[in-house]
Amino acid sequence: MTCIAHKVRKYYFWPFLIGNMQLILSISGIFLSLILLYFNARENKSVRYLGGFFLLAGLYSFSMYTLLNPGSVTLTAVVLVNSSILPYLIGPLLYFYIRSVLRDDPVLTRRDLWHLLPVFLFLVVVSPYLFSSWTNKTQIAGKLIMDLKSQEFFDTAFLGNKLTVYVVFILPAILVMGYVLGSTKLLFSFLKNKKEKQVFISQLPTIKWIKAFLIIEIILVAGYTLFMIKVFCFGDLRRFASLNTLEHLLGMGPIAILILTFFSPAVLYGLPRVPGKRGEIPIPQETPEPVSVAEKTSLLQFESGYLRSIGTEADACMDKFQPYTNPSFNLTEFSVLLRIPVHHLSYYFREEKKQSFSDYRNEWRVKHAKKLIQEGRSGEMTLEAIGMLSGFPNRDSFRTAFQRIEGVTPAVFISQKQG
């Protein structure tokens, strides 16, 4: 049995794994990017751009696998041109992510609408195909499946002009390279700016991550761009049919980077810095490289001081405005009240306070409920009403939180006070 199992792995499993490596990588990328978005996009809006980048990259890799390993006419007809819009969106998402992290501002402006101009031009050029009949699309897909190496197919059958070929296969790669280089320019500008380098010392790995991320993207996109130019500009379509090997390499790079993000909280929570308007926080002078032990200690004290200031302002806001009495009060609303970035607050609760925001909020709600009970309000209203006045959405959540924090139920607490 062991011998048979070994032969099965040798003759079936490994050829299947190698032959479908790109498919496995693209599906893995899509799945992991969805996980990244689900668990982190709420606390750090910059992660939305990063997750979107990986998601579209995975979808594009899947579409390329479909074209290079055509089997289904229907699926090939769907992805042949439609998927080519993905690179036009991948580039802007990459640029928005790098910019939002370095500037600590994920908000888009009206000027960012210009990044959609290439998408509009793409839709104009390929509109004859997009608005053609489904029969025509399946016929083109069938021709592609029969002869992937045919120069005549790309010159005539494929929408009848080379402009569309360039817009679908070559221009997207060049455009993504332009965004990668633009993001690299942002990084160099950031490193040259002395004030911008005043960041949390514990978050400095984010800069290293961005450097590695951009270097890998430059290598992958440059190789892909040169390959496509050689294939379509010089008519070497035989190489297009052998693109699988290159696609495996292009798929491994982003997936490896995506996996690394799950082991680096600094990447997922951005690059916090002291906001410029917080004048009460002393701004340290830039320290030369390499940083001495004394200088590192000074920066750590600076970080600790900023975190303590967040805690002080958070407690003062809760005590004065009592926002916790709103049942829907969340971390994002708290960020708006304090005028502190939401991922700064996430970092504070996770690293400094060692407590979730939900527990912190419930402590204030229980404190408020105790105050009402001590004022004798329990004789005027039900426990459920006291809990709702304190911000709890229902009686069960009030009872559970109260007992966890005080060690007794609200009813027992009232009886103790009355006794």
Describe it for me?
With 419 residues, the chain is mostly helical. It is 72% helix and 0% strand. It folds into two domains: 267 residues, Rhopdopsin 7-helix transmembrane proteins (Up-down Bundle), CATH 1.20.1070; 126 residues, Arc Repressor Mutant, subunit A. The chain contains 21 helices and no strands. It is elongated, with a radius of gyration of 28 Å.
Q: In terms of topology, how is this protein built?
A:
Blueprint: H1 2-19, H2 21-40, H3 46-68, H4 73-82, H5 86-103, H6 117-125, H7 127-130, H8 134-146, H9 151-157, H10 162-192, H11 205-233, H12 237-241, H13 244-261, H14 265-268, H15 293-321, H16 331-338, H17 342-352, H18 357-374, H19 383-389, H20 395-406, H21 410-418
Helix pairs in contact: 2-3, 2-13, 3-4, 3-5, 3-13, 4-8, 5-10, 10-11, 11-13, 18-20
Structure, briefly:
Helix content is 72%, strand content 0%. With 419 residues, the protein is mainly α.
Write out key terms for the chains shown:
mainly alpha, Arc Repressor Mutant, subunit A, 419 residues, 2 domains, single chain, 21 helices, elongated, Rhopdopsin 7-helix transmembrane proteins, 72% helix
Radius of gyration, in angstroms, nearest whole number:
28 Å
Largest sheet at a glance? none
Mean pLDDT: 75
Q: Could you tell me how far the N terminus lies from the C terminus, measured between alpha carbons in angstroms?
A: 76 Å
Summarize the helix and strand pattern as letters.
Answer: HHHHHHHHHHHHHHHHHHHHH
Count of extended strands: 0
β-strand amount? under 5%
Q: Tally the helices: what do you get? A: 21
How many domain units? 2
Identify the CATH class of the largest domain.
Answer: Mainly Alpha
- Low-confidence segments: 4-18, 274-302
Helicity range: over 70%
Class by alpha and beta content: mainly alpha
CATH architecture of the largest domain: Up-down Bundle
Shape: elongated
| CATH-defined fold name of the largest domain | Rhopdopsin 7-helix transmembrane proteins
